[in-house]
Design a protein that fits this description.
3 helices, 8 strands, 145 residues
Length: 145
């Protein structure tokens, strides 16, 4: 299992997620985006449809039917009804599914940085977990720590 920690300092999750989602889909995989905040899920959905001018990223919401057909599914729980092997946590609140995801993108901001530090420590103690830390510098994501 791989966990990528993304510290959001300049852009909100809805600005960062389309870039991650585009890469996941281009690799032929599916993505589950989790947030406990319904308004944030709606903003993310709109951003996936329209943020990147050269493409739109089709997505749907859990509980609206046809979840298994969605390349990107937005939900409040880490249950991959679309068969996703990749998870993006958009609200800074760490959660895991019943089965581990191949890769998790954990996004957090200044309000949730303490929880992210605790998750980092817990994951370091686990066998078979790779974790990486990314931060924004001048509009780009750079690997740190």
């Amino acid at each position: 299992m791989r966990v990528d920690f993304y510290q959001l300092s300049r852009d909100p999750a809805e600005a960062a997620l389309p870039l991650i989602a585009r890469k996941v889909l281009s690799d032929g995989a599916r993505l589950l985006v989790v947030s406990g905040n319904q308004d944030q899920r709606m903003r993310i959905s709109r951003a996936l449809w329209s943020l990147l001018p050269e493409t739109f990223l089709a997505n749907g919401h859990a509980g609206q039917g046809d979840e298994d057909r969605q390349p990107i599914l937005l939900s409040d729980t880490p249950e991959p009804a679309n068969g996703a092997a990749f998870l993006a946590i958009a609200d800074g609140q760490w959660r895991e599914g019943e089965r581990p995801f191949a890769r998790t993108f954990y996004m957090f901001d200044d309000e949730s940085v303490q929880q992210a530090r605790q998750v980092w420590r817990e994951l370091r103690a686990r066998e078979g977990v790779e974790h990486f830390y990314w931060k924004q510098e001048g509009g780009r994501w750079v690997q740190a720590g």
